[in-house]
Amino acid sequence: MRNIASRDEYVPQHGSRYKTKDTSSRGLADTRIRVRKIAAIGMLTSAVIILGITAKTYASERMAHSDASTVQAQNKKVSESKVTASQTLSTANLKTGLSKADFNDIPSGDTVQTFSLVDDQILALEDENLAALQNALDQAQELGDVGVVFYDLSSGKGVTYNADVEVYGASSYKALYALYICESLVETGQVSLDDSLGTYGGYNMGWQTVRDLIEAAVVYSDNDSFIALRAAFDRVGYEDWIVGLGIDYDTALDPMSDFPTYCPRTSARLWREMSEYLSMDTETSQWLSGLLTSTSRSFIRDGIADEQVLVRNKAGWISEDGYYSTCDAGLIDIDGRTYVMSVMTSMPWSDRSSEVTAAIAKALFDTRAALA
């Protein structure tokens, strides 16, 4: 059975779209064959519903190969998170009336800056908060590039630093691709979460439902599941969806990379779309919201460290073969307000980079009083 622990070791390379850690030349050829098989299945997915192993069968299989107590605890966590997310969303005003073009007004540069997307008001951070944020950013700069965007969805006011620095996003993009599937394909009836797809990963060959693949990719950061989803659904409207959000598909998101390089400005724009979708309160949107509260790793959640704060996020991390990244982005709910946070760095992933990213998240969160 597939190991659902995170495996960010997949990295793109010239001549082959994916490379697996320590893959031999023969193994690489096998991987290419697998990818071609996935692509063929992807082209048929939108036209044919393939009957395979059902979600119930897959769930039973995973239970048989996993520690039962761990799975039960995770399921309970997801269930409780759905309730919490639903309660929070019922009081939080996620829609601000900001046009998608307003994100172009977020300032760029290598100094900490405040901004307002609704007026020309100049915001001032408390000296203590500014010093803490600058200190955390300085620590990150010693290890790599860093950029952040943090803003209040209700007021349109925020804080930024290096909003346009381009960073390899690693697994941080998995949640945003899940947004595309749920919002653009599932809600319109083109795809069902219970449709089955063929997967050909290094740890599994078989049939799995769209629902299970999304959960594995978002909660457990599973690479095989994510690659299977991209192979199936890239061709059924992904580029149109990206362009419709006001994002330059060719430059902001490398179309040939499953794990794109992008910037905090683009990340914030996409997570704003996530907030709009989750506020729809449909069965699918609330299911996705529950997954985002249950991610196995969150530097933002670790930094804030407050059980009263609801964090829905997806992090990315890698340190090998010339690919370096420690990133996290998501939505933060507290006291009836929702904030978008994106912290993107090229720091090689380590315990130290994890701590620094968490410190940046905490410092940004502490500026929220000035953004009301």
Characterise the protein shown here.
The chain is an alpha+beta fold and 372 residues long. It has one domain (18-371): 3-Layer(aba) Sandwich (Beta-lactamase). It is 44% helix and 19% strand. The protein has helices spanning 25-45, 55-65, 68-91, 127-141, 174-186, 210-219, 223-233, 238-244, 249-252, 264-278, 283-292, 299-304, 351-365; strands spanning 11-13, 16-19, 113-116, 146-152, 157-161, 167-168, 196-201, 204-209, 261-262, 310-320, 323-334, 337-345. α3 (68-91) packs across α11 (283-292) and α5 runs antiparallel to α11. The chain is globular.
Low-confidence stretches: 1-96
Total number of β-strand segments? 12
Structural class: alpha+beta
How many domain modules? 1
What would CATH call the homologous superfamily? DD-peptidase/beta-lactamase superfamily
Rounded to an integer in angstroms, the radius of gyration calculated over CA atoms is 20 Å
What is the CATH architecture assignment? 3-Layer(aba) Sandwich
CATH topology: Beta-lactamase
Strand order of the largest sheet: 3-5-4-12-11-10
The average pLDDT value, as a whole number, equals 78
